[in-house]
Every structure is written in structure tokens, then in C-alpha cells.
Amino acid sequence: MAHTNGTEVVPTLPEPSRPSKGELKPEEFWWRDRQKWLEDQGYVLRARYKPDWLPSWKTSHKPYWKCEDGQPIMVPHILDATRLSDGEPVVLKRILTSQHPYEVEITRFLCSEPLASDSRNHCVRLYDVLDVPNEDDMVVLVLPLLRRYDSPPFETVGEAVDFFTQVLEGLQLMHHHHVAHRDCMNQNIMLDPKPLYPEPYHPRVIDWTRDLSRPVKHHMRTTHPTRYFFIDFGLSRRYDPAGGAPREPPILGGDKSVPEFRRAAGAPCDPFPTDVYYLGNLFREDFLQMYHGVEFMQSLVDDMVRDEPKERPTIDEALSRFQEICASLSSRKLRSRLVARDENPVERVVKGVKHALGSTRKVSHPVSAVNSGREQSPA
């Protein structure tokens, strides 16, 4: 939740959506019961998951939801942790190998050499794979702590252009190595928060400091460029290049608008054009329909989301066309503000003045500045 101070949105701590006393949820018991084992592997969970945990609100007399240890798990199979060796925040992802038999293999492949050294590689890094004791079908992946790709919000056209560039290049690299993501929707693209957030934030309440004492501060992308990463390769497949274009029944991913999903059940299709649709629909729904200023993407996006997969451009064609678009954009255009379509006139004027006087003037060319900083913040 948030309240406004003039036109500036000030975050407020989220209150619980249903009555609770802050106790562990049933889905958190698995993590609590393996807290010691995870620590022995080098990964420390928050105090909430220690067997001898005493809720801090019992003595501080604050509402539990205002306490660091009162924040429950969001997704049962994913939990934040800290790497003991260097204090690095990480994410632990529990998977069943019988349900996702290729996830470990493909994730490892995509962050192995020589792919890892390719500047186009925007696949999440895999730090470790832990075999869970007495669970033959289960492993825990250790991954960087990332943040949703649009948090904080984009501010300039140049920042959006850099995002488009990175994800198109990232998908191109995967396709060049015969990997189809098969679920590259907006929730499966994230950013490296380290350049943008100079202080740690709470992994559960991400707009607040680690101790929930105040809203966390952040930089803008133009002055502190970041990198974007594809995550979640549970539905991904790697194909034999000698086998030609793959044809297999589609796997239903998170974006239910994919035309292939609406056709005859199980009708085989090529998953690579489906990936192109996923990105095109992300550009359409999260940018073209949300902001003024990115209309130059309309024609390309229209082609990327065509109903007939064969009529969509390949990722190479999409990236080539996008690069031609970029060549036509002036520095002034790139530096201009992204204007939300739902802004009222007063907001538009105030934000426009603030933008004109703001930090974008510190950078001579937003996109070139972002490009020059890409290699500075690997996840």
C-alpha cells in the first residue's frame, strides 16, 4: 500500500490481508525443519525459521506485520537466505526433478562457458544445487536475489529501450543455442538490484529496508545501469540442432493469451515462435498499453504477436528490426520521460518539471551510458 505526498508515492507497510498472529504457515514448516541442514551447506535463513525462534513482537509490542521476522513466505517452494561465506543475499528454490527434469541441466548449461562470457547472456546464474537428504526426487537451487524487472518503475524512454535490447539479445542467445524458454512472460524476467539499491531491502517487503524501519531508497536506471535476467527454466527445452525445427505439443505457460494454447489440444508446434510471442506481448501489455513514448515499437510488436506463428519474425529478425528502430531515435527522445497513460494533467505537469530538472541531465546519452555499464553488475 502507499499514500501520496503531492504527486510522489510514499510506500506504507502492507497490512495483512486476513487475520493472523504472525505464526509460521504450514508451507513454512519444511524450511524450518531444514534450517540447520541449510546452514551446514552455507546458507542462513532469517530468524523466523530457526527452531528456537521467539517472535520479536512479543517483546517489542509492535504489530507483527511491522516486524522483520513477521513476514511469511510468499511462494511455498521459494525462500530467501544469506550466503554464509560472504553475506550475499540469495534465493533458494525447491524443485521436484520428476516434475521438472530439465531445469537443473538447462540452467547449468546457460550459465556455463563459453555462454557465460557472452555479453548477450541474460540467463540467471546458478550458484549451487543442493541434494535434499532423504528426498531422492528433490533438489534446492541456489540463485541470486533478483527483483521484478519493472521495480522500480522505468522513468525514461532510453531505460525502456535498454530493457528491450537486453531481453531481445538474451532470447537470441538462448535460441542460437537451441534452447526455448517456453515461459518468458513478465514474471520470469528480473533485474539485478545491486546497482539501483545502495542499501539492503527486506526480501519479502521489497520497498522497505531490511529492518522495516523506513522505505528503501533507490537510484534511477539511467545513472545506475542494471542488467535484466530470464529466470525459471522449469518448462524450457534444449533441442538437437540436427533435428530441424522442433514440433511438439505446447506447454501451457503463464501468459494464457498465446494463440497456440487456444488451438486443438496438444497440436504440435514450434516453441521458438511462441517465445517471440511472449516477448512481443510483454512489450505490448507492459509498455505500449501502459506508457506514451514507445509508439515506435508498435509495428514490430504487432508482428511479434501475430496469431499465426509462421508469420512472426524470428528472434534474429526481431532484434535486427529493433536495432534499426534504435538508430532512428535521437538522444532527446531517449532522454524523454515515459508518461503513464493513466496520469492526470496535474501529475503530468509536475512530473514533467521534475524530470526536466532531474538526474537524467547527468548523462549525455542514456542508452550509451547503460550499455557501458552492463558488465559492471553480473548476477
UniProtKB/TrEMBL annotation:
Domain of life: Eukaryota
Signal peptide: none
Gene3D superfamilies in alphabetical order: Transferase(Phosphotransferase) domain 1
InterPro entries attached to this UniProt entry: Kinase-like_dom_sf, Prot_kinase_dom
Chain spans, region Disordered: 1-24, 357-379
Residue ranges annotated for the Protein kinase domain, each copy included: 30-358
Record-linked SUPFAM superfamilies: Protein kinase-like (PK-like)
Residue ranges with Polar residues bias: 369-379
PROSITE patterns documented for this protein: PROTEIN_KINASE_DOM
Protein name: Protein kinase domain-containing protein
Organism, scientific name: Rhodofomes roseus
